C-alpha cells in the first residue's frame, strides 16, 4: 500500500478549518464547507482538502480512491465526556425511573453509581476490556473516532487503576483514540460512608500519586455535588491533581447550583461539564477564565428531566461549547453523537452547524488535541466519516437514524474487530 488515499465524491466536505483555537460565537456556525470536495491523505495525515476540480490533478495513480458517493464527509466526532469502562447495565433502574423514582432516590437506596461499582469491582481487567470493546464498537459505528474515558466505577486504588489500564489497552489496540481521565471522586464508596473525608484523603494520598506516577490519566475529574463531593473536598482533590500535572474536568451543577462551575473557573479547568443549573454569573466566570463547557443533553433526556443547560447564553457569552454523550450505564446509556446533536438542536436551540463544531473541533481542543484532530486540515490526522446524506443538517435532523457509511482513523478504514 502506498499510504496515499483520495476521498472523492464529497457532496459536502465539512472541514471545520479555521483559527488554531476553539471556536466561539459566530465562528461556531462556520464549518468551512466545500461543495464537491476532495480530501488527499498520505500516511494517515491530511495533505489537502479542497474542491475536487482543483485537486484532481494531484491524485496519483497509486492512490487508493474512496468514493463518498455524493455523501457528506466530516471529521470524526470527538466525544469529550464518557464513562466508558464498567460492567453490567442498569436497565432495571431505567424502568424504576419510568415508575416515578428519581435518580437520587435510586442512588440513596443502594443503586445508582454504587450498583455499577459493585459489578465492576468483581469483574477482571480482561473482561472489562471486552465490555469496553463492545461499547467502543457502538461509538465507532456512530461516527466517533476519539473519546475521553473516565474511571470512577472502581473507587479503590487498585480498581481505579484497573479501569484506567483498560482505557489504555483499548487505546493501544485501536482504532479509536482514547483519552483517559481519573474520576476516583465519582461517589463515596460504601466502606467510607461514615467517614467521607477519609476517602478524600485516600484519593489525594494514595490514588493520585499512583495514577500520576503510572501516567494512567491525562485529566482528573470530580463529581462536584453537595451530597457527593462538596466544594471543599472537590477543591482539595482538584488542587492535588493539578499539582501532579493533571488537567482538570469537573462534573459541575448537574443537580444543584453548587459552585462547581465557579470552582472550574477559579482553578482554570479545561472543562466544566453538565451545567444544567449554572447561573449567568457563573457562565460569565467560565467565559473570563476560558473554561470550555461540556454539555450533556443525553443525561437530561434519559433521566426524563427538562433542565437542559442554557447553551444559547453560553455561546452568546463567548464560551467555546462542547457537546458529548456522557455515555454511562445510569444517566446516559447512549454512544450516539448524532443523537446528542439532535438533542442539542431541538432542546438547547443550537444550530446544526454549532452542534457539529461542538462535537468536533471544540472538544478536540478541550482534550488538548486541537492541533491533531477535530478538523480536516493539512497535517492533521485523517480521522473522517462518510455519511449517506448530502447535507450535514440531515445528521441531527434524522434523529435515531444512523447515516454513517464508513469511518477512517489515521487514514485507515476502521472497525473494532470481534474477538
Ligand atoms: O455524568 N453524575 C455522575 N456521573 C454520571 C452518572 C454515572 C452513573 O449513573 O453511573 C453522569 O451523569
Ligand atoms: Fe458524567
Features:
binds fe (iii) ion, 419 residues, 2 domains, alpha/beta, TIM Barrel, binds N-(iminomethyl)-L-glutamic acid, eight-stranded parallel sheet, seven-stranded mixed sheet, Urease, subunit C, domain 1, globular
Mind explaining what this structure looks like?
It is built from 16 helices and 15 strands. It is an alpha/beta fold and 419 residues long. It has 2 domains: 4-75 and 373-413, Urease, subunit C, domain 1; 78-366, Alpha-Beta Barrel (TIM Barrel). The chain has an 8-stranded parallel sheet with strand order 5-6-7-8-9-10-11-12. Strand 7, helix 7 and strand 8 (219-224) form a beta-alpha-beta unit. Helix 6 packs parallel to helix 7, helix 7 (196-213) runs parallel beside helix 8 (231-243) and helix 9 runs parallel beside helix 10 (280-289). The longest helix is centred in the middle third of the chain and has 18 residues, at 196-213. The chain is globular, with a radius of gyration of 21 Å. The two termini are 26 Å apart. The model has no long low-confidence stretch (mean pLDDT 97). The site of fe (iii) ion has 5 residues, from loops.
Name the structural class.
alpha/beta
Strand content: 15-25%
Ends apart, CA distance between termini: 26 Å
Order of strands, widest sheet: 5-6-7-8-9-10-11-12
- CATH architecture label name of the largest domain: Alpha-Beta Barrel
User: Compounds present?
Assistant: N-(iminomethyl)-L-glutamic acid, fe (iii) ion
Q: Looking at the structure, what is the overall shape?
A: globular
Helix content: 25-40%
Biggest pleated-sheet summary? 8 strands, parallel
CATH superfamily name of the largest domain?
Answer: Metal-dependent hydrolases
| Rounded Rg | 21 Å
CATH class of the largest domain: Alpha Beta
- Provide mean pLDDT, rounded: 97
